[in-house]
Amino acid sequence: MLNYSATAQTETISLELLAERLKALAEPNRLRIFNLLMDGVQCNCELSEALAMPPNLISHHLSKLRSVGLVDVERDEWDSRWIYYSINRAALEELNAAFGSFFDPNRIQPRRLTCGPQHAICRPE
Questions:
Q1: pLDDT of 24-56, one tens digit each?
Q2: Per the structure, how many domains does the chain have?
Q3: Is 56 helix (H, G, I), strand (E, B) or coil?
């Protein structure tokens, strides 16, 4: 597992998980679905109407979002044919934290002269 230290603390984020989630969201239709789910719980028919996409295609994209843990699913307790989709809040918080930590400008360090022509000039002899 590739990890990086986000702060001086021992907080560690999995780069593989961050990459998987970003890859899933990089597909435009999945990002559109995710955006609609940010407004609240939706069923497939509501998503289909809002996106003008066939239900089977929406189901495909939802399964990809579910496989990386970004979307939760719940069946209606009265009629199990109805399925409702929502954002996995814990995964969203992880994604926000990982994204913010990974792209934090404070992580950028000055170059250490360990090679190249300047290294030979700066090296004490």
A1: 999 999 999 999 999 999 998 899 999 999 989
A2: 1
A3: helix
